Amino acid sequence: MHAFRTAFLGVFLACEVFHAPPEPSLPQAQSGLLADPSAPVIVLFDRPIDKSTLTLEIARDIVNDRGQLADEQDPPGNLSTLYTYDPLRGDYGGTSSLSADLTTFTITPDVALPLNPELVLIVEPGLRDLAYEVPTVARRKIVFGYQLNLTCTAPTNVLPASGDYFILIDVQEPVGTQVKLFATIDVDGTGKFTAHFSGATRNPDGTRCSPACPTTDACRTLPGPPACVAPSTSADSTDEYPDFVINTTAAGYSFDAVGCVVDQSDGSALFVNEPVDVFISQPTVTLRNTKLTATFAVDGSGVLRGAGALTADDVLLGTAESGPGSGTLQARIVPN
């Protein structure tokens, strides 16, 4: 019996209890949304942390079609960071404090965080707790954004009272594709806009190339040299708008939207519409509660450009629900 007890005790002592590393959360976020971009960001850890091992960023959630941030891609790029904390340099882009119980990290940004695009809180590997000193071995990423309260109260100095735009939307979910749109956007003195969107397609006039393209192809003149391509060929940038026309075929579609343009302190303007259903006839696709959110600004060449995102609560392929839709958006004004 003594031998049995000794063996049992040895096995018991050899079995170590697993202790997980500290996990961050945003306790004030509701469905991933915070209320006030000028308010401090509260990060809660599920156990006391060793602050000397904490490296944390808030960045724009700009990813490729594989969901990778810029510094996770090959070759790696630079994160679009808005705030950084690391043990050696401290805070950059704001200030921070850690609660007395070492579980709540409060970030106060120097300037209000942007409403668009979505943001991501990143906790880098190596963070340890105090009790067990178990480090994180992979990045912890929490995507979040801010609630958009559409109240149009002031005129915009960024968008003209009326303008035509070319828009490219690179859809990531539920199916990867590129949506091309022309839009006429009118803005009143309160910042409220009305917009009419129409599907765009490559100009079918094959004689724009020399020799002329067959009827099955379209002539792509930009970025050049001119070449015959399949009409479905994606555009690389919104500067290719001269190669596109409003789609007036049976597969064409249009929709209207209203929303607000709100000028920002950095000279840009936030553009967001009230959710709208979009119906596409060929193929039959419905986007429920579709929202376009973009930030517009004049670039160094004097061109008004926008970048942002499309989201839809649900995408129906025919009558089959395919889940939420999402994609990135780029736009530019089209000269008269």
Properties at a glance:
Immunoglobulin-like, 2 domains, 8-stranded antiparallel barrel, 1 helix
Give a written overview of the molecule.
This protein has 336 residues and is mainly β. It has one helix at residues 2-14; strands spanning 24-25, 33-34, 41-45, 56-60, 81-86, 90-92, 94-98, 104-109, 119-123, 140-146, 162-173, 177-187, 192-202, 218-220, 227-229, 244-246, 254-263, 269-273, 276-280, 285-298, 304-312, 314-317, 320-321, 325-334. A hairpin with a 5-residue loop joins strand 17 and strand 18 (269-273). The longest helix has 13 residues, at 2-14. It is elongated. The protein starts with a helix and ends with a strand. The mean pLDDT is 90.
- Give the tally of structural domains: 2
The residue fraction in helices comes out at under 10%
The major beta sheet can be summarized as:
8 strands, antiparallel, barrel
Number of helices: 1
pLDDT averaged over residues:
90
Low-pLDDT runs of 5+ residues are: none
Range of strand content: 35-45%
Which structural class should the secondary elements be placed in? Answer: mainly beta
- SSE arrangement, N to C: HEEEEEEEEEEEEEEEEEEEEEEEE
What Rg is obtained from the alpha carbons, in whole angstroms? 25 Å
Distance between the termini: 95 Å
- What is the molecular shape? elongated
> Major sheet: order of its strands?
11-12-13-17-18-20-21-24
Strand runs, count: 24
